[in-house]
Structures are given as C-alpha cells and as structure tokens.
Amino acid sequence: MKIVLAPDSFKESMTASQAVAAMREGVWSVLPHAECVGVPMADGGEGTVDAVVDALGGERITVEVSDPLGRPARATYGYVAARSLAVIEMASASGLELVAPSDRDILRASTFGVGQLIVSALDRGATELLIGIGGSATNDGGAGMLTALGVAFSDADGAPLPPGGPRLPGCTASTPRAWTADWPACTSRSPPTSPHHCSEPAAPARFSALRRGPLPTMSRCSKPR
C-alpha cells in the first residue's frame, strides 16, 4: 500500500515536514509495511522554503535579520542556484512565532527583516524571488522591507519616518534597489485598503489590542486623495 502524506504546517506548532514525520510514524504503527510518500505542502506561510527547496533542490541560507520589533534574529531562505531563484518567507523574518502574544504590536511591527533576506539573496546572485507572504506579524505595507532595500521614507518636513504602518499616509520615498519578484505566494488576494480589505479582518484575530475597533490608518489610506 502506498500512502501520500501531504500536510500543510500547523501555525506556531509544527512545520509541514514535522507533520509528515509524525503522520508517517502513525501510519507505520498500524501498517508497518506501507510505503509512505511525504509531500510537505505550503501556502506562502511557514514551511514554504522547505517545500520548494525540497521539490526543486537547493540550499538553505541562514542570515542575521531584525525581527518584527527590531530585535536581532536569525532567518532562513532557500536558494536554487540552477535557476538563480531565491525562496523567501515573510514568516521567517517577520512571523508571528518570533513575537510572544503579549508583545505583538501591529502598529509598530516592521518587515525590515524581510528586506534583509531579499538583499542577501540579491547579493548571492538571485534574479528571481518567490516571496511567501503568509504568517506575518506585521501590517506596514512592506515599508520596512523597502527601507532595507534602499527606500528612504520621510514625512512632509523631510524627517525620517519610524517603523510601522501608522506613519505611512502622506510619506514620500526615494527609488529602491531594483529586483525581480515573481509569483507572490499568499492565501488571500484582498487588497489591503479596499472596502473589504484584509487588514481589519486579519489583524484583530492576531493582535488582541485591535479587537476594540477598526484600524484608522487603513481607513485613511483607502480614501481617494
């Protein structure tokens, strides 16, 4: 008997590869002669690097980055040299699992660490980026990521903007370092600032402080200028 084991990850609990190992052990406890084929799945969140690198062949690169709150952390991305392809998870550098529930602050969390992963991949020779945008503890519109790539965000007076989404309305920015990013990988295609945008339904589920009301910054951003 052949059994295909194809789970996704279990958020903040178990990677898809770990789930495959656990499922295989369970199957063999009942069917010791079964042939188990592990196919870890991913939807752009945790486990995307493992799933793609294992499928295409490649290596895992670990670098020093800033976590969502600017603290030192280590994050891993995948690199497939034969295709000059880098596979990057937002979750690795800016994910929920990096921040204790009591410390999660979506209004100052930054995607700067994701930008640091992109810079490392570009320096390694990547010409294509597969960026999984799931499992994030941030909601800054990618401003932190762009800052790491060379964008300078400033207010109307020319003063640098601090990290976090609430400072974005009305800012100006310079041109970032160029790169090619194909196939963004995510589970939702809702625009962040549409009438039914993804920020308000997603953020309160992850950040208890926001359950008291809507996100005023997103409301301001969605209004025509």
UniProtKB/TrEMBL annotation:
InterPro entries: Glyc_kinase_flavodox-like_fold, Glycerate_kinase, Glycerate_kinase_RE-like, Glycerate_kinase_sf
Alphabetical list of Pfam families matching this protein: Gly_kinase
Molecular function as annotated in GO: glycerate kinase activity
Keywords: Kinase, Transferase
Transferase recorded as keyword: yes
Protein name: Glycerate kinase
Disordered as annotated region, ranges: 186-225
Keyword field contains Metal-binding: no
GO biological process: organic acid phosphorylation
Family membership noted in the UniProt record: Belongs to the glycerate kinase type-1 family.
Lineage: Bacteria, Bacillati, Actinomycetota, Actinomycetes, Mycobacteriales
